[in-house]
Amino acid sequence: MSTHPAPGHTPEIKAVPFGDSALMVSVASDIDEERQSGSRTLREILLEVRPVGLLDVVAGVDSLLVEFDNLAISHGQLAQTIRLAAAGGSFEANRPSRDGKHFVIPMVVNDAFAPDLSEVAEELRISREAVLQHLEDSELSINLLASAMAPMMGRVQFPGAVSRCREPRTNVDPGSVMVAGTNAIIQPFPGPTGWKVIGRTPLVICDIHEDPPTSYKPGDSVRFKVVPESAWERLSGRFLLAGTYTYEREH
Predict the structure, then answer these.
(1) Is a pLDDT exceeding 50 seen at residue 53?
(2) CA dihedral 35, 37, 42, 43 (to 10 degrees)
(3) Run of H or E residues at 144
(4) CB 94 within 8 A of CB 216
(5) b/e string for 187-216 if b means 16 or more Cβ within 10 A?
């Protein structure tokens, strides 16, 4: 039997106990994009419904860690509540987040900022310009906040999946825009990575002096815009906010 969710129907929801007071919840599908978008929708539904005993919903790439008070509800009761909430919540795998924000993130591409762009182009059998065009044409959804609150985003409409670096870098500069598979991520702070670097944003995406330190969260949407190097000085050091980037309106 196919596990693909049919239009207008609630897909099968998997809920596996994870310790004494958590469930690992996901949409049963063998298609990555359906699991990812389904998890985003489930998160929205759970935050709307707020089942009894719910403590937190932690987003993963294609699953949710649902933490709960085991004195208020059991694993089985919560799993059934989640399935009922999904069935009654107008489940649409690609519906936008009700309170989601949209970000346009500028990125500069040159030899120093995009050391892996040519390799990505060769792997996908397209030009460097086509790689960047696919990225710009994709509206990405933030699936989770990874290490150091890095926004992990899917899905870039590449014609194939991008492999990781054969040898991970020990240090990548903040703002580096990186891809692997059909996902994208931005490096918030200096650190190692095995993802391929294809550009850099001049904006500060995470600042521990801000409250909160990031303006984005899972469920928000992102588009990238390649800008000329001349825009770097004007945009450098600005904290990323929805609506911060106004390059297209200024020119």
Answers:
(1) yes
(2) 120
(3) strand 140-145
(4) no
(5) bbeebebebbbbbbbbbbbbeeeeeeebbb
Cβ atoms of 188 and 107 within 8 Å: the answer is no
Please tell me what DSSP assigns to residue 177: E
| Cα 154 to the center of its chain, rounded Å | 5
Q: What is the total residue count of the chain?
A: 251
Give the 3-state secondary structure of residue 213: coil
pLDDT for 63-117, tens place per residue?
899 999 999 999 999 999 999 888 876 565 555 555 689 999 999 999 999 999 9
Tell me the backbone φ, ψ of residue 163, rounded to 5 degrees.
-75, 165
Rg (CA), the chain: 19
Question: Does pTM surpass 0.90?
Answer: no
Count of C-beta atoms within a 10 Å radius of residue 121:
17
